[in-house]
Design brief:
- By secondary structure, the chain is an alpha/beta fold.
- It folds into two domains: 152 residues, Four Helix Bundle (Hemerythrin (Met), subunit A); 218 residues, 3-Layer(aba) Sandwich (Rossmann fold), CATH 3.40.50.
- Helices cover 37% and strands 19% of the residues.
- A seven-stranded mixed β-sheet has the order 8-7-6-9-12-17-18, sandwiched between helices. It has a five-stranded mixed β-sheet with strand order 2-1-5-4-3, covered by helices on one side.
- Helix 1 runs parallel beside helix 3.
- It is globular, with a radius of gyration of 20 Å.
- The N and C termini lie far apart (45 Å).
- The structure holds 5-S-methyl-1-O-phosphono-5-thio-D-ribulose.
- 5-S-methyl-1-O-phosphono-5-thio-D-ribulose binds next to helix 2 and strand 11.
């Protein structure tokens, strides 16, 4: 699968029906993780990439919530964008059923979408934005206006990522190799990526020479998704087991760790894919820079510290199996917390679309969030 041309892709419907389609917008490319097309939401199925290319069709909020829960689509900003389109699907159904009571009825759909995953705050941020928007609607048919708002959320995320990419790349003084963890790329966002947005901009500017992609057990977002994305962009990538980072840093082979975030607390603590905290400890020990790239929609001023962030625990079988094959003995216990919290003191910088927070603290995070949103600035 090259993913670059208009090849046929499989389209999977909730009814179980499958078709093949060849269409310019339904291309299996990292920047096409979320596609609104012909009144339907198409999600590039990230569970089967890169071996297979297929889109899951969502026609209701229930199907959208299931796709988020099952990780058809994943990554904090991508979950938010998807949920916004899920609200459009919900409004269409509720308005068709009862044009006078749809605004009350849709509350249940918003709740269902909110329960899909607990950690990434972008989900709740996007739902809140859609809830506020729909509360102000007085049109006869709310769907076109809600769709326009979901499209705005989607487009704003891509623009934010491009700004993050430029600001993050500018922090890399010498050409160097970097480590990334999980997938914080185009697939995990509305497009372009956060950590991988910095990589894309940094590579284009000659500052990033190679990316070491942690494979990211158990779900393998690194070896499957990050490796595929970077390959598509022509950026040199080496996949490594999650436990290689220490020796790579000890040999002086990387200048930066660059990761995304699922939620950033008001004090600058960063919640991201399990294993990120270990990388931050290693980076500090070896004098390697630790950069977090995330839009301001990932900053949650309602949580004071990382301790208050709910950490999703997924099925133990994700750890006890690999590639669909059972590895651990039957009956053994496993735990599978899928995120961890990196304390702010281990973070060198948080790069957002509004500017860079160096050595994050409550004051610095608060100042950036309160700043004029039209001009990117650095507080350093
Ligand atoms: O469980 P996932 O794959 O949704 O976890 C994704 C991550 O941890 C990403 O690093 C984070 O969401 C940032 S994506 C730009």
């Amino acid at each position: 699968m090259s993913g670059q041309t208009t090849e046929s892709v499989s389209i999977y419907f909730a009814t179980g029906a499958t078709t093949m389609e060849t269409h310019a917008v339904l291309v299996a490319h990292p920047d096409n993780a979320i596609v609104w097309h012909h009144d339907r939401l198409y999600l590039l199925d990230q569970r089967i990439l890169p071996a297979e290319a297929g889109f899951i069709v969502c026609e209701t909020a229930t199907e959208t919530a299931k796709a988020i829960r099952d990780m058809v689509v994943r990554g904090a900003p991508a979950i938010g964008v998807t949920a916004a389109y899920g609200v459009v699907l919900a409004a269409r159904k509720r308005f068709a059923a009862d044009p006078t009571a749809w605004q009350q009825a849709i509350g249940a759909d918003l709740e269902l979408l909110a329960q899909a995953r607990p950690t990434a705050v972008n989900l709740f941020w996007a739902l809140e934005r859609m809830r506020t928007f729909l509360g102000d609607l007085d049109q006869l048919d709310p769907v076109p206006a809600l769709l326009a708002e979901a499209r705005r959320i989607h487009a704003e995320d891509v623009s934010a990522n491009r700004a993050i990419g430029e600001l993050g790349a500018a922090l890399i003084a010498e050409p160097t190799a970097v480590i990334t963890h999980c997938n914080a790329g185009a697939l995990a966002t509305g497009g372009y990526g956060t950590a991988l947005g910095v990589v894309r901009s940094g590579h284009a500017a000659g500052r990033i020479l190679r990316v070491y992609a942690d494979e990211t057990r158990p779900w393998l977002q690194g070896s499957r998704l990050t490796a595929w994305e970077l390959q598509q962009s022509g950026i040199p990538v080496t996949v490594q087991a999650d436990n290689v980072a220490a020796s790579l840093m000890a040999r002086g082979e990387v200048g930066w760790v660059i990761v995304g975030a699922d939620r950033i607390a008001a004090n600058g603590d960063v919640c991201n894919k399990i294993g990120t905290y270990a990388l931050a400890v290693l980076a500090r020990h070896h004098g390697v820079g630790f950069m977090v790239a995330a839009p301001t929609s990932t900053i949650d001023l309602n949580v004071a510290t990382g301790d208050e962030i709910p950490i999703e625990e997924r099925d133990a079988d994700e750890v006890l199996t690999c590639g669909g094959r059972r590895i651990g003995p039957e009956g053994v216990e496993a735990h599978n917390p899928v995120f961890d919290v990196t304390p702010a003191e281990l973070v060198d910088c948080i790069v957002t679309e509004r500017g860079v927070i160096e050595r994050p603290s409550p004051d610095r995070v608060g100042a950036l969030m309160a700043a004029d949103t039209t001009t990117p600035a650095s507080d350093s």
